[in-house]
Amino acid sequence: IRVGSYTDVTGGLLHAMSWLNATGAGKKMILVFSDFPDEPREGYMREFPVNFNGAHVVVWDVPQAEPLPAAVLTETKSFAERANAWQQRVEAGDGYWQLANDEAAIMEWLQ
Description:
Blueprint: H1 9-23, E1 29-32, E2 56-60, H2 70-92, E3 96-100, H3 103-110
Parallel strand pairs: 1-2, 2-3
């Protein structure tokens, strides 16, 4: 698998919502495994409202097993800031946000 040069979180969520809407799903859930660095190609605009239409966006926040070095702690703070910004964006777009950090929480949301 070749890693891409750009990360397009907005595009991925738009694609997920488009697919869920097309299926006519009664319960809409998007399970996200990302640290949210939205870095689309130059010239791509990604700052616009997204209608989540009642979808649940569940974000997996993997807990750390060992104490974190200072550089990782800085990145963890950056993740928290990015996740908070996405939470605001999801909720402003008529969606629901859940940050989960264990398998039991994910399984609960999948029921």
